[in-house]
Amino acid sequence: DTAVSQTPKYLVTQMGNDKSIKCEQNLGHDTMYWYKQDSKKFLKIMFSYNNKELIINETVPNRFSPKSPDKAHLNLHINSLELGDSAVYFCASSQDRGLGNTEAFFGQGTRLTVV
Amino acid sequence: ILNVEQSPQSLHVQEGDSTNFTCSFPSSNFYALHWYRWETAKSPEALFVMTLNGDEKKKGRISATLNTKEGYSYLYIKGSQPEDSATYLCAFNSGTASKLTFGTGTRLQVTL
Predict the structure, then answer these.
(1) Of A2, A41, A44, which to mutate for an interface test with B (greatest number of B Cβ within 10 Å)?
(2) Which of A9, A59, A103, B96 has the most CB atoms in a 10 Å sphere around its CB?
(3) B37-48: b or e for each residue (b if 16 or more CB lie within 10 Å)?
(4) What single string gives the DSSP state of each residue in A27-80?
(5) Which of B14, B5, B6, B4 has the alpha carbon at shortest distance from B77?
(6) Distance from CA of B11 to the nearest CA of A (A)
(7) What is d(CA B103, CA A92) in angstroms, rounded to the nearest whole number?
(8) First and final CA of chain B: distance in angstroms?
């Protein structure tokens, strides 16, 4: 069983389109995250939700909107896609929102290519 | 802006060699330091979560130490094997927010 699963794994779309990436975790964790792997291979936090409540919103264009229908799901919706949005997006979850004594569990990533 | 730096960027060793890499992080507002192992085409997987100055953790042939006062952590691999080939990421948590700031990783390649 995959603990944190993202769909789709690959996404190729045209500029200006709206797309969503879905994430589900079956670990019973309270906190979920979206990270973006940038061109320099850094993993950078975008959003964090704890029990469906937004707790981190980094400097991300408002074309990106996370939605958490329940604590097991955190979807990422992107409006008006731009070339610069091309990246690999990782979903993650953790039991502890403080990430002090617990690790983050990552999905396999979604490679988004905007053409 | 939190700077988390890892060195070296890449490392190529032979099977059986022991190796180590460094993670540097801000020494103020320390909460936790994470190490992850990231194999190509897979997800990052946690190796260690370290919180106490002087802490040392071990998992098989891999171990890590932590110095929060000077802001660094070492990851050691004893007797490297080809299956150890991966990118090793460290991530810093200042505790002020529920997030990890990652370094760019050390890419390890172990050959026969």
Answers:
(1) A41
(2) A103
(3) bbeeeebbebbb
(4) S--SEEEEEEE-TT--EEEEEEEETTEEEEE-S--TTEEEEEEETTEEEEEE-S
(5) B14
(6) 17
(7) 17
(8) 41
A108 contacts on B by Cβ (under 8 Å): 42-43
- For residues B24 and B101, what is the distance between their CA atoms, to the nearest angstrom? 12
pLDDT reported for residue B96:
62
Sign, CA dihedral A66-A70-A113-B106, equals positive
* Partner residues linked to A21 by β-bridges: A76
> Which of A98, A103, A108 is opposite residue B98, by nearest beta carbon?
A98
The model's pLDDT over A12-35, given as tens digits with 9 standing for 90+, comes to 999 999 999 999 999 999 899 999
**Two structure tokens written together for B12:** 């190529």
Residue A55 has which token pair?
Answer: 């707790």
**Which two structure tokens, joined as six digits, stand for B91?**
């991530």
Token code pair at residue B110 = 């172990």
Residue B25 identity: F
Q: How confident is the model at residue B1 (pLDDT cuts 50, 70, 90)?
A: low
